[in-house]
Amino acid sequence: MDWLGYDAVAMRSGEFWRPFTAWITQLNLRHWLLNQWGLIVLWLLWPARQPLKALLPYLVVWLLCSVALAVSDYDRYVGLSGLLYGWLVIGAVRTRAYPVWVQLLFLLILSGKVILENIQPSGGRDWVGELIAADVAHESHLWGLLSGWLCVVIDWLRQQVQSMRVSPD
Question: Where are the domains of the chain?
Fold first, then answer.
């Protein structure tokens, strides 16, 4: 699966798929298990019976994060966590399975964690890095978080425009 991971040198040599496939490769079993836990949380947020068009924001997060990876300073990258942060933002906003205060608390904690790890990336102990035996790509978490919030804001704006068209004045 090494041919799927992001490698800047290989990408510059014509392997343009690498920023788009790096998300499905993992460093090791612990890394894979940690990302599976994120997918379980996402599944718990997922509303039942979603139409196919509900996947569009998730695809947008994947596309935006892939472009960010392609223009980043990373030499190598593997892992799903960057996408997971964006997907969790979308899932938390869309879910109706939990009260609004739980959704807001989840979003606050999620956003706060990513912001803190990016303003002081080397400050404090990085337990995830120790667990997966590798450096954590904190910037990819920020790309995902921002992409998720962008999708949420665009969806909210779309709803506002639609409601203005429907409202008789």
Answer: 6-166
Length of the chain: 169
Q: Minimal CA–CA distance to 42: which of 100, 81, 99, 4?
A: 81
What pLDDT, in 10s, does the model give residues 50-90?
A: 788 888 999 999 999 999 988 988 888 888 889 999 999 99
CA-wise closest residue to 143 among 85, 91, 59, 57: 85
CB 103 within 8 A of CB 51: no
Q: Provide the residue type at 17 as one letter.
A: W
pLDDT digits 0-9 by tens, 123-137: 545 667 777 777 788
DSSP assignment of 70-127 equals HTSS-SEE--SHHHHHHHHHHHHHH--SS-HHHHHHHHHHHHHHHHHHHHSTTSS--H
pTM of the model: 0.85
